[in-house]
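Q: Could you fold this chain for me?
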Amino acid sequence: MDRFRAYRVFQDGDTIRGRLVEAGLQDLADGDVVVRVAYSGVNYKDALAATGAGKIMRRFPLVGGVDLAGIVETSGDPRFTPGDEVLATGFGLGESHDGGFAEYARVPADWVVRLPRGLDLREAMAIGTAGFTAALSVVEMERNGLAPANGAVIVTGATGGVGSLAVQCLAAAGYRVTASTRKADAHEFLRSLGAAEVIAAEVPDAAAARPLEKAAWAGAVDPVGGDTLGWLTRTMQRGGCIASSGLTGGIKLQTTVMPFILRGVKLLGIDSSMCPMDLRLEAWRRLAADMKPAHLAAMTHATTLEELPAAFDTLLRGAARGRYVVGIGGV
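A: Sure. Below is the predicted structure, expressed as structure tokens.
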């Protein structure tokens, strides 16, 4: 463990870029638990952080990667012992604390989740932050009244990490899923993941739109934001829930109060990074059980630490389909 490989991100003036380096535990942020990392996932947030395309990282240099799964090497906390299979997502990993793009990680014990029965380490990172966000979206909507009998649930940005996993989680839990995508060649792929219907993501001009449109959806998982989120508010059924978790379509929301006061629409913000541990454990329990994605292999691309820049480029161009899983420790 003296020296190990890590994908570390550096800032040189206004330039931010990452590279593969050798590191030691003394180079990592503090933590009670040292994990021999087996796998990590590549998220849109990772691409923004490692390239400087978004102001994600709060200090430099820093090991990237907002999620990880592996085996406990050492622990100063009695909740975990060497040999335990664990995962960690969010809580500042890859933002303010060294993350999962390294052969070893050191993290606070309060951030660590024991791998739930029903998942292996690779599956956990095929799900990763994206799938955790999708599951959390479903859990929160169900806490606000969503049920399969209520009607169709739409997933926007459905070929992306959150979207493709949300389609599978909802289908596994018995929901009728409508997938929305701009990619004309992805319809068959989305149906193979469990979508009952696939529609083109054609959002009308918000300025010209009516305050309310035809009510269509009992729920919505939206990692897109922007005009797409505005359109969702106008097309929800009475009492419908929208789980908002992303901003690839922009940060501005143009809507009116009408959907909320005339249809009782609920707009739920999904914070997968800092959500409390009880809710975190519930989402991972569901991901290993009734919401376990059935087609992880079909929508997962294997990559390596050396190949991370290519994965970042694909994500930033909006050309990704499914999830990238980084094989690190070979466990």
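A (continued): Residues 121-143 form the longest helix (23 residues).
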